[in-house]
Amino acid sequence: MSKLPSEHKFIDLSDYGRPVAIIIANSLKTTSFTPIHVTIGFIISGIAAIYVILTGHYWFAAFFLILKSILDAADGELARVKETPSYTGRYLDSVADIILNLLFFLSVWRISSSSIWICIAAFLGLQLQGTLYNYYYVILRNKFDGDMTSRVFENKRPVALPGEQQKHVNTLFSMYQFLYGAFDKVIYFLDPRAAYGKILPKWFMSAVSTFGLGFQLLIIAVLLVTGCKEFILPFFLGYTVMVFVFIGLRKFLF
After folding, report:
1. Domain ranges within the chain, ordered by starting residue
2. Would you say the pTM of this structure is higher than 0.90?
3. Among 1, 67, 100, 138, which is most exposed with the fewest C-beta within 10 angstroms?
């Protein structure tokens, strides 16, 4: 189920797992499995990826990284087909993502010769990239009545939706703000008028989708299996410069 009307759908390079995710969601539609169960599944897949990275089994690492991306899309798809949106699932997904991302990068640091400072800087760059992509994507979705759990600014505790408990929403929202708040503020500082500009064109969103987590994990997987593990952290650190390129293009063109 698309998050955008057909005339505004773009080629999302980070969303290659969506077709399989849709199959998974449809197969679970009439079962007792919930989106939270699928989220737990991608957490397990992420932990498995970390283990096999550290033990040098890079083809298995690639498998689990891509599986994690597919399940990361499947939990949202299942919420849509079951018509059970929740802030609990939305924030749990994001909190799990950032913790796993940090552990992925620490694992790559352990198997490479990069310094811990390069690792930390690359992780911060990775998160800044993902924040910009999500910022532009949610703005676009909200212009066309996107899903109700996606908000451009996560600066106010939401009211729990039917079927979830407010205390769970409050806890996960606080965790989200702690982990993502600084990244959100940086991107908003760099491009505060993005929500009031023109509708972002498909080619631009496709380019920015290289900042999406699915594409980022695919890059890690490819570099691992091709024997280029030394380039993973420097790549993400260097690619962060594109944050400023995309923001400049957005301001100048749209």
Report:
1. 12-253
2. yes
3. 1
